[in-house]
Each structure stands twice: as C-alpha cells, then as structure tokens.
Write a structure and sequence with these properties.
With 427 residues, the chain is α/β, with parallel strands linked by helices. It is built from 15 helices and 16 strands. The strands form two sheets. The protein has a nine-stranded mixed β-sheet. A seven-stranded mixed β-sheet has the order 3-2-1-4-5-6-15, sandwiched between helices. Helix 4 runs parallel beside helix 5 and helix 10 packs across helix 15. The mean pLDDT is 96. Pfam families: GFO_IDH_MocA, GFO_IDH_MocA_C.
Length: 427
Amino acid sequence: MKKKYVLVGTGGRAEFFYGAIARDFRDTCELVAFCDVNQTRMNYANQLLEEKYNHPQINTYLAADFEKMIETEKPEKVVVTSVDRTHHTYIIKALELGCDVVTEKPMTVDADKCQDIIDAINRTGNEVRVAFNYRYAPHNTKIRELIMNDTIGQVTSVNFEWALDTQHGADYFRRWHRDKRNSGGLLVHKSTHHFDLVNFWLGTTPETVYASGGLRFYGRENAEERGVTQFYQRAYGSEVAKDDPFAIHLEENEHLKAMYLDAEKEDGYQRDQSVFGDGISIEDTLGVMVNYKNKAILNYSLNAYLPWEGYIVSFNGTKGRMEVRIREQSYINSGGSKDDEGKVKEKSIMVMPMFGQPYEVEVIEGKGGHGGGDPVLLQDIFGTPVEDEFNRAASHVDGAMSILTGIAGNISLKTGQAVKVDELINL
C-alpha cells in the first residue's frame, strides 16, 4: 500500500525530494500536497510536477494551514525542506498529528529547538529521519568501511579542511542563510554535514567543542577595507552588480526567476542580495577543535571564499594514516543540474600503513549527485529499505549529534570557552 507524503517548503531543496517521488517512487509513495508561505512558489512546484515529471498537480496549503493540511490529506509522512529555523515547528506539529518526518539537514538550529524535537519524539513515539546524503557518497562510505575494518587501527586524530568556493560558498551570503537566526550560521547549516561524517566515520559522538572565527571576507566592512567603493543592496536592477563576479542575476535563469523573482511580491524575499552588503551575521572563516567520547580529536576548518570546492581530510591511527582529497563540482542552489550538487571531479584515498607501502584505494562512483550517493539515499528513504552494514540511515539522534557540534561551536564563538555537548540537551 502506498504511503502518503506532503512536503512543506518548496524552495531550492524541495525538488530533490518531490521530484524523486514523482519520478522514481510512484509505486510506493503518493505525493498529495505542498505547503509553503508563498503561493507563487507552490504554483511553480506544481508546474514542474506536471511538465517535468508528468505528475498530476497536487493540493497546496499556505503555512498557516499546515495543521489543516495534515487533517485533510492524512499523510503518513511529512517532508520538511523549509527555512532551517522553522524545521522544529513543522517537525513537532507533524509528530503530534501522528506523522513520521523526513527532514532536510540541519534538523534545527539551536539547543532549545533540538530538545523540543526530542521531547516530541519521546512523547509521540513517531520517527524523524534526517537526510544526510553525504553518508551515501561512495567515497565517504568507503572511508567508513576502511575504518571499520581496522585498516589504520584506532583513529586518534582527524584533520579536516572543507573549502567552499566563490560560487557555492558565496551563495550562502546572498540568501536567507546570511542571517544567523535563520540558519545557525555555516557551523550548523553547512558543517552539520561534515560533523555528521566524522561521527559516522569514527562511530562516536562529540564530547567538548571549541571554536574560533568570524566574518573575514564577505560583508560591507571587509569590502571597504579592501578598497571597494561601489555597493548595491541586490543584483536585480543594479548597474553596479553587472560588473560584480559575485552577483547572481535571477532574470537570466528561468528556474531561479520563476521560483524567487516572480514570487517576491508575496513575501518580499530577495534571493540575490549582495555578498558585500550590510546585515550579514554569519561567519565565513571558521576553525573548530572537537574531543570525542572515544578519545579521538578533530581539527576542522571551513572557509567560504576559496578558489576550489571540496575537502581534504587526514586520519591518524594506531596502525597508520589515511589521506583523502575530494574536489567537487561547484554549483549554485537550484541554478543548474541536480547532478552538479556534490559531483566529484577528482578523488584520492591514500592509505599509509605504519610498516608497509602506501597504496591508493579505488572507489567506484555511481550516477547522480554526490558521486552517486543521492539515488541511494532516496531509495533508502522512499523505496524498500535493505540491510545496510554501514548504518547510513540517520535518526534524530544522529541529527542531534551533528548539529550539536555546530551549536556548541556557536556558543564557543561567543564565550571563548570550550563547551560540553552533553550539557546542551538531554537525549
């Protein structure tokens, strides 16, 4: 029997989920309704359903009618892809109305909201699943396999550098993410992927977190210090923006125009704000040190304005060392092919045994985003579950443990002190 799904939040990340249901999982899933603050955006999602996926249009409900939607449509599952700060609202309401939830990362943005979600799960007995697609990328799964198989012994320390380039990295500073209230900053919105990977790879959870960093490149003040004299608030209609390589021009991309520019009249949201404007409250340069419960330590850095996109991670263990270098295809959210998201352009996994010759580990990538990981995740969520020796399916506990590293990091940024993760929430 098919399970009914509704989706709340029809912005840039939504099509990844509703497109998959409409294209690949009609035998097991039935998509019955959209919910959003913006009717124009829902209408466009319905247009894509019909024209791109040959799927009938579905009912739409404004955000204020979320509970009415649940009562009317009677879904078994709710997919949450709204603005991060609203995740907890829809997750908790859905749980209390008898639904299970699939939520985009991050599960939420602060410790209080995280506790509210956990309490609702305990109270209702319903399930929350967090869509961590990076776990399913073949190279990341291979790292998990190598560590599980004791290839380099017990991992004692990890050095992890993540680079966001001037296309993808800059995009967080054009959108709603630039306001830390909405996203929790990059330590929560973006780094939740990376902290989850470390938890997943090492099979452990964070104990203490210390962070430092700030806004060092984007923002008006930084641009002024570099000698910039011409500024604009948003790219649309700006002469100055025409010569800015950091600007995004919504009117030149049919998809972005329909989803955002044409929808502005309803909620005033501007998708193309200047990355060198005022009002940016998130960091672009971050360093984090984490102590884990299995005694491993992590040195992590994130920079959002670099010439390349990807990551370098080194694992030091009691039997050797492993070095990983992954270069990804840069992209703008909803600005191009879905397969460009996390597409692997170069990869290398090198194992260096303590008393042996170094060797490179072969990884076979699949088709689709994140090296072929996205289709595997979608099959795991919407298809028939199969036994997975790597336990890639992420529960609410996994979701909590990943965001709590970033949440603790945000607290540390404010206080200058290390933060004990166990003191933030009660699981």
